[in-house]
């Protein structure tokens, strides 16, 4: 396997530490190497991670069995009605037609393949505690149907110790010995939905096995979907690596949002200042501000670490404060919106407010943890008549049960305020310039010269 040159950013001194990470390519040909590329893989969970992973395995000429508990999801996959890039949709169709990709709800099919990759969601509940239901059920099904000689790789982000607790130890109780007759490892997904610049094959993965032989076997599986795999000493090290990645991103975004408010007070453009700071070739890793943080990772994953720390009676006060700031950001958008309405002599009750884009990021129709939902709910609770326009999201349901549908021709209606939340590529937004009051929560919609910022 030919990987990428290692690129780190550790206070500008990455050259001192590059040899601390071991690439799979450096060990796969060693004296104890026994790993071979699998001919068949089961992907458990066919969501935003599992489905593109299944397609990538198929592209590398691996026979794929996709297992998912949702009949609706399976039917949508068979019809090709899924949120994939067009090139991946074509590859999915080809795999389904040839039979090299098979999708089913039958978990017993896990026993028919050489390797298993678990890709189920790990959300948090309303109280921000980990929701482990899907993960536990998936691991139970895998453990039940595994046979000697198979490799299993957990990719779902979770607390430190998950792989050992939910996979390795249950397999031991079944009479298997990880490292001898089954092979168990953790390698977190690093999929960036809607971003063509971060292809799965081009994104390095970190992997830790229960034993060295587990790591090598699992790396031979994961190297089918990425050209670069780096090995760490244990599943726990790999699990915490993923949490650290998203904790760092959460901190960066919280700082970016707070700094944007500083810039507004000083009448400066936070995008200009961030780009200027980014010219420094070391020591600065910035982020752009926005209306909040959504998606499957950053608003959720840090809570897995905080939950585990509380269980151990430990604290992470900085991270606690960061996550509070992230939770509060949509409410800041609502306050700013009502402030602008008041400045323009419009009472929030009975005002007409349009939110542009409700998915959590550009180019995808994913509503998970989207800041737009509490923004719409907060404006509605303030008495405003709210609507939204998003060609990728036909309808949304707010926390109070209210259902809204996409406003297809918003330019034909009167709006007291337009809130820019998500801008999808290829969509015409030039009509927004005709509205006198525009709140740009993306900080990037500068085609409207009279826009106001958060």
TrEMBL record:
Keywords: NAD, Oxidoreductase. Pfam families: UDPG_MGDP_dh, UDPG_MGDP_dh_C, UDPG_MGDP_dh_N. Residues 354-447 form the UDP-glucose/GDP-mannose dehydrogenase C-terminal domain. SUPFAM superfamilies: 6-phosphogluconate dehydrogenase C-terminal domain-like (SSF48179), NAD(P)-binding Rossmann-fold domains (SSF51735), UDP-glucose/GDP-mannose dehydrogenase C-terminal domain (SSF52413). It comes from the Bacteria. GO terms for molecular function: NAD binding; oxidoreductase activity, acting on the CH-CH group of donors, NAD or NADP as acceptor; oxidoreductase activity, acting on the CH-OH group of donors, NAD or NADP as acceptor. One of its GO terms (biological process) is polysaccharide biosynthetic process. The keyword Lipid biosynthesis does not apply. Belongs to the UDP-glucose/GDP-mannose dehydrogenase family. This is Nucleotide sugar dehydrogenase. It comes from Actinopolyspora mortivallis. The lineage of its organism: Bacteria, Bacillati, Actinomycetota, Actinomycetes, Actinopolysporales.
């Amino acid at each position: 396997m030919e990987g990428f040159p290692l690129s780190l950013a550790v206070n500008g001194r990455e050259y001192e530490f590059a040899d601390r990470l071991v690439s799979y390519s450096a060990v796969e040909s060693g004296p104890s190497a026994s790993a071979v590329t699998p001919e068949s893989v089961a992907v458990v969970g066919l969501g935003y991670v599992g489905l593109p992973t299944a397609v990538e395995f198929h592209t590398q000429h691996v026979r794929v069995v996709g297992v998912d508990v949702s009949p609706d999801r399976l039917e949508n996959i068979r019809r090709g009605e899924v949120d994939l890039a067009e090139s991946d949709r074509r590859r999915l169709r080809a795999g389904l037609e040839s039979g090299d990709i098979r999708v089913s709800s039958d978990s017993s099919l896990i026993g028919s393949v050489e390797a298993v990759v678990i890709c189920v969601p790990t959300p948090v509940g309303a109280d921000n505690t980990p929701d482990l239901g899907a993960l536990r059920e998936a691991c139970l099904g895998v453990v039940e149907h595994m046979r000697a000689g198979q490799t299993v790789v957990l990719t779902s982000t979770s607390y430190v110790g998950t792989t050992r607790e939910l996979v390795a130890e249950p397999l031991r109780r079944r009479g298997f010995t990880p490292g001898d007759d089954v092979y168990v490892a953790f390698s977190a997904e690093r999929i960036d939905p809607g971003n063509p610049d971060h292809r799965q094959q081009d994104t390095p993965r970190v992997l830790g096995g229960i034993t060295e032989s587990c790591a090598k076997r699992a790396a031979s599986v994961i190297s089918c979907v990425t050209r670069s795999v780096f090995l760490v000493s244990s599943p726990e090290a790999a699990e915490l690596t993923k949490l650290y990645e998203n904790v760092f991103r959460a901190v960066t975004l919280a700082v970016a949002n707070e700094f944007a408010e500083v810039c507004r007070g000083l009448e400066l453009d936070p995008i200009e200042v961030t780009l200027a700071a980014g010219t420094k070739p070391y020591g600065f890793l910035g982020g752009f501000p926005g209306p909040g943080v959504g998606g499957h990772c950053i608003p959720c994953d840090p809570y897995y670490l905080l939950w585990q720390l509380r269980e151990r009676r430990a604290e992470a006060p900085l991270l606690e404060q960061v996550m509070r700031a992230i939770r509060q950001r949509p409410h800041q958008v609502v306050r700013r919106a009502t402030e602008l309405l008041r400045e323009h002599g419009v009472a929030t009750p009975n005002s007409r407010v349009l939110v542009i884009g409700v998915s959590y990021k550009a180019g995808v129709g994913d509503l998970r943890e989207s800041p737009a939902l509490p923004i719409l709910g907060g404006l509605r609770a303030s008495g405003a008549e709210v609507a939204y326009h998003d060609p990728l999201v036909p309808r949304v349901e707010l926390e109070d049960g209210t259902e809204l549908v996409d406003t297809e021709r918003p330019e034909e209606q009167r709006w007291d305020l337009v809130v820019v939340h998500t801008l999808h590529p290829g969509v015409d937004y030039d009509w927004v310039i005709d509205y006198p009051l525009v709140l740009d929560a993306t900080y990037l919609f500068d085609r409207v010269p009279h826009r106001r910022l958060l």
